[in-house]
Amino acid sequence: MLLNSNQIQEIIPHRYPFLLIDKVIELDPGHSCVAIKNVTANEMQFMGHFPQEHVMPGVLVVEALAQTGAVCILSLPENKGKIAYFAGIDKCKFKRKIIPGDTIRLEIEITKQRGPIGYGSCKAYVDGKVAVIAELKFAVGE
Question: Active-site residue numbers?
Answer without folding.
Answer: 49
